[in-house]
Design a protein that fits this description.
This protein has helices at residues 2-26, 38-47, 52-69, 76-91, 100-121, 126-154, 156-159. It is an all-alpha fold and 165 residues long. Helix 2 (38-47) packs antiparallel against helix 3 (52-69) and helix 4 packs antiparallel against helix 5 (100-121).
Length: 165
């Protein structure tokens, strides 16, 4: 059991490195809205293996990191990540958390929901809200889910993920 926790910690640290080192180098300023969010992938991987309270706390911390980087809507990211972390942990009882396809879908839905909450809590105007939710959020959700699935496939033995459906 302890080895599984250490392996998860290593994967989460790899995702942290991907988010802050690789992500800014691969995505230009113009396409940053569709860049994969590896911090959300880390939150989702942790949340589906944790209790709802622990997942909400992890989401809050990740949200504070996001709020510190974009202080214009301070608090909206913390709220959004807390809600998404809690719901992902709660949802593991409903979904099969050890299936790579289900994990990819949960990551995509979690990212879109996070973006919805951030936009609503940040007081975004209706035109920007519709454009973000209809264009940029689905693109980012798909790209992030593909990145998350790639991480799951690479670390499948560490995370006990099944590749069959």
């Amino acid at each position: 059991m302890r080895a599984g926790r250490y392996r998860l910690l290593v994967v989460l640290l790899v995702l942290l490195g991907l988010h802050f080192y690789l992500r800014p180098r691969l995505w230009s300023e113009h396409l940053a809205a569709a860049a994969p969010d590896f911090l959300l992938v880390a939150l989702m991987l942790f949340a589906i293996r944790a209790r709802p309270g622990n997942a909400a706390l992890a989401g809050f911390v990740i949200g504070l990191i996001g709020d510190a980087l974009v202080p214009a809507r301070f608090g909206s990211s913390a709220l959004a990540h807390t809600v998404v972390g809690y719901l992902a942990a709660w949802g593991r009882a409903v979904f099969f958390a050890d299936n790579v396809v289900v994990n990819g879908a949960l990551i995509a839905v979690g990212l879109w929901l996070r973006n919805l909450i951030v936009l609503l809590a940040g007081g975004t105007g209706s035109d920007e809200l519709v454009a973000s939710l209809a264009l940029w959020s689905p693109a980012q959700a798909l790209i992030t889910a593909l990145g998350g699935v790639a991480v799951l496939v690479v670390f499948r033995s560490w995370l006990d993920i099944r590749l069959e459906e």
